[in-house]
Write a sequence for this structure.
């Protein structure tokens, strides 16, 4: 590789330290140090080298920066990037399907953290309505083999993209000039998932990369490929949430919660979920250095992700529960009389396609001045075929059945009585089905079709980012070391189509549905077993249900609504680095200023509501007018973001830091859509609606960090840090009660009140006989709108120990983070809660042994309870700990065999509402193992 004037004082410090401790260095640093024949050079590989490089990055940075480096090409510490990041102090993760997918830093959830790939913003999309319109990167979609380093910037920097109040996380991928000539690796592993019930217990994961340089080091090419298949199973018990003041004949005498309110579960459910996931990743990097002063890098990154899940649920709805709430207002023992069991089926299809193309040119003009031009475009598409990504169908016990003529005839005067008990980790359910013919709620003759529901997103998310930066280095004496400056333009454009069709189809003939029932077996064994809920779970396909509806002319598709946001941000920054002595201590300082102007344009295309129809005893259907109407709103804001980082070498081993910086996080995208949507509309329940707000200002945080680090070995140190964040423009929801108008400007009225009992409800939509009328009462909606509210404070402590026990081969990493805030959710407050999601303490412990050809590592990650979702009815994730381990043996200089175990103790996840008895989810995944061989050449 040609020698370039790209060797900074920071790299020099790492190189000198590495020489002193006989540690192998990256190729770029080796080229400088190997020239000195008097320096002893002993190569150390594996974990110790990775820990040394990560610690060096932390030590030499002026701000608070943590890092994880690959042990070698294609050898990142974990197969999942999020699961690697959780080992860093202050970083914890959210899991989906028992796999890390997003990160929380210092108590700030995924939407508060900016994730970049090689310093560039990356778009994300999802086809699931439960995901909303995400900004935050999902780590499960990117394999770790092509990653060489992850840096976590916890303090603001003028030259780092804004958006991360928690942190900015930069993922660096391998490049051909990182290696000296030819380098290649390949890995083959089998993923063994012990949870699998339907599918392959062992699935393949393949990865490989090849890199080489040509033309005397002037041209380099690297190609990496990855393919992964995983099958898994999840057992879940839970509810569809808890409703305030829901039920009838409620005895409130025991309530002592300060409000007098009570909460009842909407449902009680048992789910069996089978999932198949396939992921492809590829990256092609071409580097060209025509001379020693210019390096051009062209890179293309590809991501393809597909996940299919089939879920079957045994459950029931509490339409009119009775009972006595406990002192907290939780209806722990609800009773539902003369209702029905529900037999659900879901089909989920998650498809995302991501493509990124970037060109970077480094130009060393002279010994003092250099420029960097970076042009980048990236796109993420979900559900690119534009189909419904979620299908749901329901069967139910019924008092009526279809006869041979297709008419509904009475078969029972009473259905089932249900009693539930929510006082334990998972509820217990008693079903009295003695009134049904044969006394069996699971007899197909007592089951009728109920409804279908199709929904999902199609999202096209584009980012165009152009940046030019410069650096002037002071080659003369003086405190000023260098000045960095730059201009950047970022255009963020998101277009969405939202699907949603709902219909009751009680006249559907389900003879060919293939309905069977499965014994729940050992489901949820970690919670004491699922037999206490329901003995059986229905098995059938929601896709097949909808196919039958199509064949019988009962299926219809509502045109999708459309929403979109375009953000254009222009940024300019300048920063200066200084090095000087202060009271005999070597001092480093970085002073920076970043200014941004952001223009926002948001649109929605939605049909207006012409009528409401009473279509079911538990439902009211919207009847649109069929005329899509576009609405566009605009907003803008400016932010000036200063930063100051000071690092003092108090001794040759002790480092002290102080940092101040201002940072921002932009609003979630779906909060800015201008459309008004009804989110809940049922007879005898509170009607709910919401509208977006394109004029939302970003969260703005003033941040202070103080820390001390003591480096007492080549890869050993201990650190302690305090951080404080004042967050302004806190985004919360304002709730008002008001009516909502139809297309003619008249308030919507309730069609279930004083409806014709001989004609309504009617499942045939539209049916004018069951439309709302002017003589019926107007519906008062609980209307929510996101808005910038008060400020909040977050502070905490971080403690880290990284220790290598001499030459014994043993080492350990331990860290603990404490986070506090005045923006914690107040469960005794009914409305107006402003709270940070993800706020929690966390701890990690890693122990390892590496000597000769043997490596063994064990890691335990713990996270305390945190708020997963706020709003008027919260969701809390309870504390969770997971034990992982891996071991490898290097057969020879080319081949290594390994085994990895994840969630070895079969840890389970439980979520609840305001109080622990208000169960939301209890999920069990099982353990999984990876066994394989790795080759390096």
């Amino acid at each position: 590789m040609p020698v370039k004037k790209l060797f900074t004082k920071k790299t020099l410090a790492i190189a000198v330290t590495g020489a002193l401790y006989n540690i192998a260095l990256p190729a770029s640093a080796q080229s400088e140090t190997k020239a000195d024949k008097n320096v002893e050079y002993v190569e150390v590989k594996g974990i110790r080298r990775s820990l040394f490089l990560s610690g060096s990055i932390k030590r030499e940075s002026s701000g608070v920066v943590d890092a994880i480096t690959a042990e070698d090409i294609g050898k990142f510490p974990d197969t999942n990037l999020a699961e690697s990041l959780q080992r860093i102090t202050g970083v914890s993760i959210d899991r989906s399907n028992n796999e890390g997918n997003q990160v929380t830093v210092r108590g700030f959830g995924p939407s508060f953290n900016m994730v970049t790939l090689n310093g560039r913003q990356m778009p994300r999309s999802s086809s699931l309505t439960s995901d909303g319109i995400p900004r935050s990167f999902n780590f499960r979609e990117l394999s770790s083999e092509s990653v060489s380093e992850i840096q976590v910037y916890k303090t603001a920097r003028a030259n780092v993209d804004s958006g991360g109040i928690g942190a900015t996380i930069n993922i660096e991928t391998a490049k051909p000039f990182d290696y000296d000539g030819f380098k290649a690796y390949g890995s083959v592993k089998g993923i063994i998932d012990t949870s699998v019930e339907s599918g392959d217990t062992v699935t393949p994961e393949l990865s490989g990369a090849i890199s080489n340089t040509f033309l005397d080091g002037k041209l380099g090419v690297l190609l990496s490929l990855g393919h992964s298949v995983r099958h898994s199973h999840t057992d879940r018990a839970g509810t569809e949430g808890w409703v305030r003041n829901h039920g009838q004949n409620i005895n409130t005498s025991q309530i002592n919660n300060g409000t007098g309110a009570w909460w009842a579960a909407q449902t009680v459910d048992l789910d069996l979920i089978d999932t198949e996931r396939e992921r492809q990743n590829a990256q092609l990097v071409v580097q060209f250095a025509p001379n020693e002063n210019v390096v051009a890098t062209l890179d293309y990154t590809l991501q393809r992700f597909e996940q299919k899940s089939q879920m079957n649920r045994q459950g029931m709805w509490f339409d009119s529960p009775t009972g006595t709430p406990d002192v907290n207002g939780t209806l722990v023992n609800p009773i539902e009389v003369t209702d029905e069991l529900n037999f659900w089926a879901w089909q989920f299809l998650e498809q995302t396609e991501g493509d990124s193309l970037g060109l970077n040119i480094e130009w060393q003009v002279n010994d003092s001045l250099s420029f960097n031009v970076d042009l980048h475009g990236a796109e993420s598409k979900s559900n690119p075929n534009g189909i419904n990504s979620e299908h749901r169908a329901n069967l139910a016990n019924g008092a009526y059945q279809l006869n041979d003529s297709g008419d509904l005839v009475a078969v029972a005067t009473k259905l089932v009585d249900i009693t539930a008990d929510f006082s334990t980790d998972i509820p217990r359910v008693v079903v009295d089905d003695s009134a049904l013919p044969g006394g069996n709620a699971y007899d197909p003759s007592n089951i009728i079709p109920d409804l279908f529901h199709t929904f999902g997103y199609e999202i096209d998310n584009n980012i165009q980012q152009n940046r030019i930066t410069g650096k002037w280095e002071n080659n003369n004496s003086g405190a000023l070391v260098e000045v960095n400056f730059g201009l950047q333009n970022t255009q963020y454009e998101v277009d969405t189509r939202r699907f949603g069709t709902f219909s009751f189809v009680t006249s559907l003939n389900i003879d060919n549905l293939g309905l069977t029932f499965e014994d729940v077996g050992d489901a949820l064994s970690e919670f004491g077993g699922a037999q206490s809920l329901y003995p059986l779970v229905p098995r059938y396909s929601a896709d097949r249900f909808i196919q039958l509806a199509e064949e019988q002319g009962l299926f219809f598709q509502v045109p999708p609504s459309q929403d979109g946001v375009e953000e254009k941000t222009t940024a300019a920054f300048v920063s200066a680095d200084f090095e000087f002595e202060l009271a005999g201590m070597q001092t480093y300082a970085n002073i920076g200023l970043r200014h941004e102007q952001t223009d926002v344009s948001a649109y929605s295309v939605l049909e207006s509501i012409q009528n409401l129809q009473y279509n079911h005893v538990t439902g009211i259907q919207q009847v649109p007018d069929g005329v899509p109407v576009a609405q566009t709103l605009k907003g803008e804001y400016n932010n000036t973001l200063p930063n100051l980082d000071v690092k003092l070498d108090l001794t040759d081993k002790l480092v002290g830091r102080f940092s101040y910086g201002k940072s921002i996080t932009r609003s979630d995208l779906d909060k800015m859509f201008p459309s008004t949507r009804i989110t809940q509309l049922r007879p005898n329940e509170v009607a709910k609606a919401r509208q977006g707000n394109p004029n939302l200002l970003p969260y703005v945080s003033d941040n202070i960090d103080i820390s001390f680090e003591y480096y007492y070995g080549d890869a050993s140190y201990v650190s302690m840090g305090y951080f404080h964040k004042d967050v302004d423009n806190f985004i919360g929801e304002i709730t008002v009660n008001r009516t909502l108008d139809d297309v003619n400007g008249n308030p919507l009225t309730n069609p279930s009140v004083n409806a014709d009992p001989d004609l309504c409800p009617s499942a045939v939509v539209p049916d004018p006989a069951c439309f709302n009328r002017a003589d019926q009462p107007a519906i008062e909606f609980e209307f929510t709108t996101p808005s910038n509210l008060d400020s909040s404070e977050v502070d905490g402590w971080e403690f880290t120990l990284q220790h290598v026990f001499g030459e014994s081969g043993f080492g350990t990493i331990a860290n603990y983070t404490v986070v506090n805030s005045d923006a914690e959710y107040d469960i005794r407050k009914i409305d107006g809660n402003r709270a940070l999601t993800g706020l929690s303490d966390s701890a990690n412990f890693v122990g390892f042994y590496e000597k000769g050809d043997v490596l063994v590592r064990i890691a335990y990650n713990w996270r305390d309870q945190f708020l997963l979702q706020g709003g008027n009815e919260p969701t809390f994730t309870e504390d969770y700990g997971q034990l992982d381990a891996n071991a490898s043996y290097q057969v020879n200089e080319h081949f290594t065999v390994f085994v990895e175990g994840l969630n070895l103790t079969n840890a389970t996840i439980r979520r609840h509402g305001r109080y622990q008895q208000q169960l939301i989810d209890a999920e069990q995944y099982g353990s999984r193992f990876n066994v394989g061989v790795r080759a390096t050449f």
